[in-house]
Amino acid sequence: MSAPGEGFPYSPLDQESREIRILVLDPGTSGSRISFHLKTASFKNERHFLEYEALSYEWGDSTRDKQIFIRDHAIEVRENLWYALDALRLPNEPRFLWIDAICINQNDISERNHQVQQMADIYSQASRVLVWLGTATPQSRLAMSHLRKLSALLYDKPKPSVGQMARSPQKWAALLNLLEKSYWSRVWIVQE
């Protein structure tokens, strides 16, 4: 077993063509083996460009790793990324994702620096950016429900009752807990 970069089968990227790697997540059901392969796409060559989603995620505990597989090569990723991949894969078709920890050869300083320079394009060219803060808990479900209601106050008609929302300290505490996650303090979060 190894982390990406340590014996991981990366092929070089062409920096002139502004290439990136896209993780093609194999179909599967929750809890089954997570497997994938990598494809190369180029911002310069639209014929070789794949539609993809970019994943931004809470890193989580670095001491709790889980295995995913590229072909038969096992690699370890942080547990929170494993849970994200398990939840995001589709049952009957592949899903195309850009994930920094896997799509960038973290041990190749030149590649890593070049990919970091392309981050704004990587995120802006994604069909959408997915945010994974961790597996759902009763408190996170309450926070997300509260966020939807707050959003409705701004955008929906008719508007929900502000009085009902103000009298719900549990919802505000859940929302505060969500906003205190380390994800929001990451240096790259604004760019992502």
UniProtKB/TrEMBL annotation:
InterPro entries: HET, HetReg/Transcr_Mod
Domain (Heterokaryon incompatibility): residue spans on this chain: 52-192
Pfam families per the UniProt record, alphabetical: HET (PF06985)
PANTHER family: ANKYRIN REPEAT DOMAIN-CONTAINING PROTEIN 39 HOMOLOG-RELATED, HET DOMAIN PROTEIN (AFU_ORTHOLOGUE AFUA_8G01020)
Record-given protein name: HET-domain-containing protein
Organism: Hyaloscypha variabilis (strain UAMH 11265 / GT02V1 / F) (Meliniomyces variabilis)
Lineage of the organism: Eukaryota, Fungi, Dikarya, Ascomycota, Pezizomycotina
